Amino acid sequence: MFFNSFHFAVFLPIVFALYWFVLNKSKSTQNALLIAASYYFYSCWDWRFLFLLVFSTLLDYFSAIQIEKSTTSRERKMWLWLCISINLGFLGVFKYYNFFASSLADLMHSVGFETHPVLLKLILPVGISFYTFHGLSYIIDIYYKRIQSERNFIDYSLFVSYFPLLVAGPIERATHLLPQLKVKRDFNIEKAKEGVYQIVWGLVKKIVIADSCAVYANAIFDNYSTMNSLSLVLGAIYFAFQIYGDFSGYSDIALGTSKLFGIDLLKNFNYPYFSRDIAEFWRKWHISLSSWFRDYLYIPLGGSNGNTWFRVRNTFIIFLVSGFWHGANWTFIAWGLINALYFLPLLLLKRNRKNVDQFRLSFDFESVKIVLNIVITFAITCLAWVFFRSKTIGDAFGYIKRMFSNLNFAEQYFKIERYNYELIYLLLFFIIVEWNNREKIEPISGKYSSLKLSLCIAALLALGVFSDYKEFIYFQF
Q: pLDDT tens, 312-348?
């Protein structure tokens, strides 16, 4: 079930009405309804994988209790690693087995040995990377005694399977979400209005921005060998806005939907394309995943402690694992490696925590410097996105080589019967709106909120009718 589907437009009001007006007597009835709605939501993709979700929930629930009950450090560690191994084992089989088998066969072929790997015909369960990480964070927090194990199975099941975040995040922490699920929620009209505003703005990002950019980005990336330098540069920019509008739009819809039920989720994006360096970008892009890797991988590895070699090693591990988390393809690993190389100078010069403050522009030299840094950071980010979007490493290098060697900057007319400038005007307007929204809690609420809401709905109706790119990019991860 897509957030931008008619199915969801019917599903959400029904669950909302039952939640507040029928089953609102207690926390237990509210949570039971949300569990049922979440399992239905997930089963709409493929009901067979519902059993995998339930198994993962049971595994983490009982493992946490066993860790807490263990009387020795050895026993606690045994239960921890058993749970982690099973979780990562399922993730590895469904997401990475064919990749490793094919890569090993290619390696053997390159040295003269022919092998015939057995590949599995498996469908990747939607959201498996996200709900696996939900459970792992919970188990690790139990192990380090940051929280106590949750004995109410309904409450814990809802933490794992809560439908707004189930298939594409944000990746929640038990310390943040579980306390909200332990108490009865009371209806708050202001929070509900905020939720509606955020849902509508998320749909604008997805349907108006991301889906429009997808049409152009697909036309350029799929035919890059016939495109000139201008189109290839714009193609990288279009994909940058496509993936931002798509994923941050999903996150906005998830956060807004959750507010309708009186539950706050973690903020996942903080206007990352206005970052002044790559370190600031990663503090603002997919925040829940970046912070997950920081807390559960980077810091346990030693973080920024130790000598320069250890700090460099830990940085590369984090970025490479982050790239691999996104998919079983060498292009994602290359994307992670490129971002690690971007980050390395900041780390070595101890400037990776320089740009943590808010900033405003004025007519002075410092503001010119800020704008220049933003443009440079966006440009190198777009270059890395080429690897993320390309089907193979060869395609990525071919795309970039032609971008810098063709040197033809004439306007091209695409087979999709459009010119570039039709989308450029829309993106320029979107950038202005995003810049104006940087210091606001909600992009539509506030002064003239009714007018803003009307304009957003008009844009959705105008462009949504012609949108044929329905899926969210991060569903594949």
A: 899 999 999 999 888 878 899 999 999 999 999 999 8
The maximal CA–CA distance of the chain, rounded, in angstroms, is 72
CA separation for the pair 433, 429 (Å, rounded): 6
Cα–Cα nearest to 247, from 468, 435, 473: 473
What is this structure's pTM?
Answer: 0.91
Active site residue 326: yes
Q: State the DSSP code for 206.
A: I
Write down the pLDDT at residue 403.
Answer: 93
Please enumerate in sequence order all residues whose Cβ is within 8 A of that of 282, keeping only pairs 6 or more positions apart, or say none: 290, 339, 343
Helix axes 308-326, 330-348, angle to 10 degrees: 150
Task: Quickly list DSSP for 432-455.
Answer: HHHHHHTT-SSSS-STTHHHHHHH
Look at the alpha carbons of 219, 225, 226, 231 in this order and tell me if their dihedral is positive or negative: positive
Rounded mean pLDDT, 41-70: 91
- DSSP character at residue 138: H
More confident site: 341 or 362: 341
Exposure of 173 by Cβ count < 10 A (0-12 exposed, 13-18 middle, 19+ buried)? buried
Which one of the listed residues 7, 134, 176, 326 is annotated catalytic? Answer: 326
* H or E element at residue 60: helix 50-69
pLDDT grade, residue 308 (50/70/90)? confident
In angstroms, the CA 398 to CA 364 distance is: 41
Query: In terms of pLDDT, which residue wins out, 3 or 116?
Result: 3
Cβ proximity of 339 and 278 under 8 Å: yes
